[in-house]
Amino acid sequence: MNGSDFIFLKISQINQPQYSLSDQFTLWKRENELYQVFRILKKLGQILN
After folding, report:
1. Are 22 and 7 within 8 A, CB to CB?
2. How is residue 39 annotated by DSSP?
């Protein structure tokens, strides 16, 4: 997270550890991606609880 930009890291440990980066979400686009970021954070909160 860097102010108005968000990138998420996904880690998978099936067989061999692997990771991938999400698309970059930004608040500066015309279609404001803040709601997508909130949706991802809400899903992460549900998984961690």
Report:
1. yes
2. H
